[in-house]
Amino acid sequence: MIFSYVGYGSNLGDREHNIRWALNLLSRTSSLDVLRTSSLYETEPVGRVGDDWFLNGAIEVRTTLKPLELLALLTAIEEKVGRDRENRSGPRTVDLDILLYGDRIVKEPQLVIPHSHLAQRSFVLIPLLEIDSSLVHPVQKRPLRHLLAEIEQPSVVRFFKRLPVEETCSVDWCL
Fold first, then answer.
1. What average pLDDT score do residues 39-57 get?
2. What domains are defined for the chain?
3. Hey, which of 25, 35, 98, 146 has its CA 20 to 30 A from 135?
């Protein structure tokens, strides 16, 4: 078993519903346990003027899946919730990204862990630090809280609501 952190976001349709649906599907997977979830944060889209704002957050999971298997699971859940991959950086119903996978460093054509933009994105670091303020970047060997403090132009990240893991993972209305 390994501890991994997954970031999530949505800026199309009923954002909260999309996130709850994706997290519910994830929590029903026998090869992982959702341990902790951050609050939801409303965040401005990075690099895309005029797009709707995102709801973002992060979860901690314990899994037996290898990194590429976890990626395949997350991609399947994104598709089930209606993710259109044609416009990779455009608006999305749900986006699920592996942010950290223990302290492992992965460099595959389809997967880089830690997430390649982790250290520059306040909308990722804030939810991660809410879950565990002691997390360290496995490549830079520096606490994530230090990396957050050093972001020169942080995006707007504002608290939206608390999303307890029990509520996230037990609701059936979103299936």
1. 87
2. 2-170 (3.30.70.560)
3. 25
Nearest 5 degrees, angle CA 82-CA 86-CA 92?
Answer: 45
Q: Is the pTM of this model over 0.85?
A: yes
| Contact yes or no for 96/45 (Cβ under 8 A) | no
Any idea what the Cα angle at residue 84 is, between residues 39 and 63, rounded to 5°? 50
Active-site choice (97, 142, 145, 162): 97
CA distance linking residue 141 with residue 167, whole number of Å: 34
What average pLDDT does range 68-80 have in this prediction? 97
- Contact between 138 and 129 (Cβ < 8 Å): no
Q: Give how far Cα 47 sits from Cα of 44, 50, 53, 90, Å.
A: 9, 10, 12, 10
Please identify which of the residues 52, 83, 88, 132 carries the catalytic annotation. 83
